[in-house]
Amino acid sequence: MKQHTSRRRLTAAAALAAATAAAVTGTLLAAPAALAAPAPTAASSGEDLPDLAVTREEVPAVLDFDSPDDIAYANWEFNRPAWVTLTLTHTASGKQRTITDTVAGTVWSFRLRANGDWWDGLAGYSGEYTWKMTAENEERTGPGVERTGTLTLDRPAKKRVFDSNGSEDVLVRDAAGQLSAYDTNQLRFFGPDKPLTPTVLSTEWSGYTLTTATGDLAGTPADDVVGMDGDGTLWLHQGEGQGFLPRTKIGTGWRIYNQLIGGSDLNADGRDDLLARDTSGVLWFYASTGNATAPFKPRVKIGGGWQIYNQITATGDLAGATGGDLVARDAEGVLWLYLGKDDGTFTARRLVSGGWQQYTGLAPFGDKNGDGRVDLYAIGPDGGRYYASANSVNGPFKPAEQLHHLPDALNSGTVF
Length: 416
Prior knowledge:
With 416 residues, the chain is mainly beta. The protein is 6% helix and 42% strand.
């Protein structure tokens, strides 16, 4: 008998203890209760173990992210204790995560989904994945096994998600023309010891003088963006989850405008619309058509006097009224709320508060407190702040929450 035979004698009790330790020290490797105990092997009787083999494999072909099941697993069972490595690769983005089990056992489970979230490495990007599972025996001797396959993560399109991971993004265009998406979950919840990982959507946006996120104008998997170039030509970039389709020319003569405001459904037709302010201060409403080549109906005048504002942001339903809302900041730093009336017009403005001159940019932040209303992100030289919706027309925001990260690109670039 070989010298290392005694080291192959792993009792079922020892394997169970090791698997239990894995569940405590690494939540990603926690197995379902029914699979926690390894099956008895020949090691408990002192016999030489056979070559490693897979005796059971359960990997879902499609993972429904909106399934009522709280937890989904990929499971492998072996004829003897094994060390396992699993690599998942998101096909569209190339993002990859490798997980290595440091505990020997005969059952290995990887949690694909738990309580509405996915594992941190890929953050649940929708679309197709390839996976590769490799395993060795507990002594890392003898032949191993390898299995490969694909799985698809299905999750519905969501407003202001530009990289397919289900978390709303803040977009920023820097001075060099790079357009990046900053995950709002990272902006709010990552501490100073955990770096942000923005998704670069494009590096060729320096030619635009105005940009705005418009929402989904024509049915692609992600929200769209429009940009106006120096000649006054308006271009549509349809989102496809990890970037944009080739741009489409959708209009000329837009140099009369000095701000574009998009991202809210202002007339209750289920499609997001566009607002444009001209150089004389008149605000114009462009209702969407759903057609990518001609996405807007003829403009309708809303009213004049909007030149008093240096920032106008379409937030969506902020305070529980019937339509998409606006917040507008005047030259004194006072923020005003305009409630949408579902016909492309707004109620009389309401005072929010003063002091907003400290910010260089404002952008919708998604619903981060789960109240069904849109929250707001504000960025300035003193840092980023999160304003949760208070669901009130008289005081739309709760007190600001200071955020840890202040990326230079966000503070110095164009945020929308």
